[in-house]
Amino acid sequence: MKAVIFDMDGVLIDSEALHLYDFRVFLQKHNQNLTNEELSEFVGLDAKTFIGHLQEIWKPVSLLPSIEKIKEGCKYPSDSFQDMLVPHVRFILSHLKKNNIKIAIASSSPYNIIYKMLSINDIDSYFDVIVSGNDVQAKKPSPDIYFETLKRLELPSNDCIVIEDSLVGIQAAINAGLYVIAIKENRFLVDQSQADCIVNDLIEAWIQIAHIFDLSMLD
């Protein structure tokens, strides 16, 4: 193994809860009552797919707001990236770097959001490759974003590990032939059963990576 690829939302930053909170508020304003299971279907979706799925389930369809109003009501919560950083991010990134393991991001979020998050949290120097949803036409669960990441890393799939959290992200990585570690999600009804391994946090992810890479956890 030579590289670890991170999803961003739900893995490096805890943005999913804030995003879904804002989404709940938006739905309540428009008298839309979604179950927890229905809300969980939106976790990990890129913006276009998110809006498309919302349009499909809106009742009655005649009262569906404009796309502009939906985008405004469900906009990405990008104002508090420092508060969103997941515990132990710097721990795992620094340990990967010390062991000369390449580090990449493969996120459906646009470049400006990814770079803003990295810059605000001062972790941009850790990453060798950054691939966003802008780089591919087919979004997760399509494997295209992971194929593009592998291409830029100049590595085959069996030399890389992916850390994901959402169903579509896990499926995308599996479809690209990658080994997947899932960060356990207890707040939403996310099916993570297809992942090769499920861990509670990034500390446990590092323990799994150290074992797979045959590294000392003390390095």
Word description of this protein:
The protein has 219 residues and is α/β, with parallel strands linked by helices. The chain is built from 10 helices and 6 strands, in the order E-H-H-H-H-H-H-E-H-E-H-E-H-E-E-H. The chain has a 6-stranded parallel sheet with strand order 3-2-1-4-5-6, sandwiched between helices. Strand 2, helix 7 (111-120) and strand 3 (129-131) form a beta-alpha-beta unit. Helix 6 (89-98) packs parallel to helix 10. The longest helix has 14 residues, at 16-29. The protein is elongated. It starts with a strand and ends in a 7-residue tail after the last helix. The mean pLDDT is 91.
Query: How large, in whole angstroms, is the Cα Rg?
Result: 17 Å
Task: Describe the main β-sheet briefly.
Answer: 6 strands, parallel
Helix content: 40-55%
- Structural class by SSE content: alpha/beta
Count of DSSP-assigned helices: 10
Oligomer: single chain
Mean pLDDT: 91
How far is the first residue's CA from the last residue's CA? Answer: 16 Å
Give the strand order of the largest sheet, numbering strands 1, 2, ... along the chain. 3-2-1-4-5-6
Number of strands: 6
Overall 3D shape: elongated
How do the helices and strands follow one another from N- to C-terminus?
A: EHHHHHHEHEHEHEEH
Give the DSSP E fraction (strand runs of 2 or more residues): 5-15%
Parts with pLDDT < 50 across at least 5 consecutive residues:
none
